[in-house]
Amino acid sequence: MYDVCVIGGGAAGMSAAIAAARTGSNVIILEKNNKLGRKLYATGNGRCNLSNTYINLEKVYFSCDVHYAEFLSSVLGDAPSYDISEFMESMGILTYERNGYIYPVSNQASAVVWAMTDELKKCGVTVILKADIQSVAYEKQTESGENSNIIIKLDTDIIRAKRLIIATGGKSYASLGGGDSGYNIIKELGVKMSELRPALCPFIVDEDFKDIAGVRANASAWLIVDDEPKAFETGELQITNYGLSGIMIFNLSSIGGLAISEGKRVTVKVDFLDKYDKGYIEGCIRKAEKRTILGALNGFINDRLGGFLLKRTGIDTRTPAKALSDMQIKAVIDEIKSFMVELKGLKDYEQAQVTAGGIQLSELDKNTMKMKGMEHVYAAGEALDIDGICGGYNLTFAILSGKRAGESAALNL
User: What is the distance between the alpha carbons of residues 237 and 217, in angstroms, rounded to a whole number?
Assistant: First the structure.
C-alpha cells in the first residue's frame, strides 16, 4: 500500500511525487513511457525555459473557464518564477534570468530531468516505467460507503494507494509520449472535461502559399474572430506551404483554435512592416522612379513575398514604380500593412507543443488541486484546462500545480 500514487512522470508528475515524498510519504510514479520527463528534455529547444518573470495571468494563459485567472492566482501564488527557481535550487539546479526568461545555468533541459530523477531516488519514490494501466477504481472499506483506497490495475500488477494524483499530460507530441491514455483514465473516473484541441502550433490557411513557403519576416499580427480583433502578437513570422508558423503564431493558436472549433470565422491580419507607417513606405516607392515595383519593394521585404503581394493586387512585377497610380500604390501598401488571410484550422497534435482543454477547473479545489466529490483524487499539469503562450508559462504551471497537488495529497493523509 502506497500513501500517494502519481500517474504520469512528466514535469507535473515528478514535481508532485517529490513534494509528497519530502513529507515522508511512501510514493509511487506510474509512467507509460520508457523514461521520465520525455517532453521535458525538449523544452525550450533543449535549454529548458523553466519560467518567466512577467506573468499577467489573463494575457499569458487561456482556458474555457471564465474564472481561470482566479484559479491560477491561487495555484501559482505571488511570485511563481521565484518559487520555481527555489524549487530547482533545492535539487541542485541553479537558474538565471535573461530578458525575463528563467533558465537553468547549465542551459540543459537534461540537467533538470537528471536532478529531478535523482531527487526521486533520494526521497525513496518507487518508479514503474512502461506502466500499462488497465483500470483505476475505488476500494470501498468504510461502513458508510465512503471512498477509501484506490486500486490501479496494471497489466502485470495491482497498485493500491491512499491518494491518487493525475498528472498524465496531454496529446501533443506523440513521438515524445503524448496520447489519449491519460484522458481515458480521467473519463473512467467520471471527471468533466473541456474539449481537447492542439495549441502552440501553426495555422493552416485557406490560400495557396507554395510560392512563399520558407519566407520569414519580422512582423506583427492581429487575430480576428468574426470581424472582432481578439489578440495581438509581434515577432518572427514563418510562412509555410500550408500556412503560418513561428512563436508569434503559436501564441495566437489557443484563442484561434477555440474559435475555429466553435464554427467562427477566424482571420489573421499581418503587418509586414510594422515599424514603418504607410506614408513612409509610399515615399520609398515614389523615390524608386527607375526601378520596377518589385525592385522597389525588395528594398524592404523579401522578393518572393513582394511578388506574392503584387499578384494579389493584380499588378505586374515588371511595372515601373513611377507608372503606378495613387490607387495602385495604396493597394500595394494595404497588402504590406494589412495582409488578411482566413484560417482553416490548426496543425495536429504532433506539431503542437501543448494540449488545450482538459479537466474542467470547476472540478478542482484551487487551494489543494483535489477533485471535488473525490476525496482522494488530485490533478495537475497539462491534463487540466489551462494552457499558456511560449515563454516558460506551461512549465511553470506544470511544476507548481504538481508541487501543490503533491503537498496537499500527502498532508491530507
Answer: 5
DSSP state of 399: H
Task: Give the span between the Cα atoms of 149 and 138, in whole angstroms.
Answer: 6
Q: Which of 140, 104, 131 is nearest to 8 (CA)?
A: 131
3-state secondary structure (DSSP) of residue 101: strand
Contact residues for 177 (Cβ-Cβ < 8 A; gap 6+): 10, 32, 33, 38, 39, 169
Closest CA to 101 of 351, 382, 380, 396: 396
Q: Are 142 and 148 in contact (CB under 8 A)?
A: yes
Rounded to the nearest 10 degrees, the angle between the axes of helix 68-76 and helix 393-411 is: 70
* Phi, psi dihedrals of residue 177, rounded to the nearest 5°: 110, 0
Condensed to tens digits (0 to 9), the pLDDT of residues 68-120 reads 999 999 999 999 999 999 999 999 999 999 999 999 999 999 999 999 999 99
How does the average pLDDT of the chain come out, rounded? 94
pTM summary value: 0.93
From CA 103, how far away is CA 96, in angstroms rounded? 6
At position 328, the amino acid (one-letter code) is: Q
* C-alpha triplet 273, 276, 281: angle, nearest 5°: 90
Are 236 and 248 within 8 A, CB to CB? Answer: yes
Instruction: Write the pLDDT tens digit of every residue in 177-230.
Output: 888 888 999 998 899 999 999 999 999 998 999 999 999 999 999 999 999 999
143 pLDDT above the threshold of 60:
no
Joined grid coordinates for residue 367: 487551494
Q: Once rounded to an integer, what is the mean pLDDT over residues 18-38?
A: 96
Where are any strands of DSSP class E within 279-407? 339-346, 354-359, 377-379, 387-388
What's the CA gap between 39 and 9, in Å, rounded? 10
Per the listing, cell 526568461 goes with 101
Grid cell 504532433 is found at 350
Secondary structure class of 380 (helix, strand, coil): coil
CA distance 34 to 130: 5
For the chain, how long is the longest CA-to-CA vector?
93
* Cell numbers given for 60: 499569458
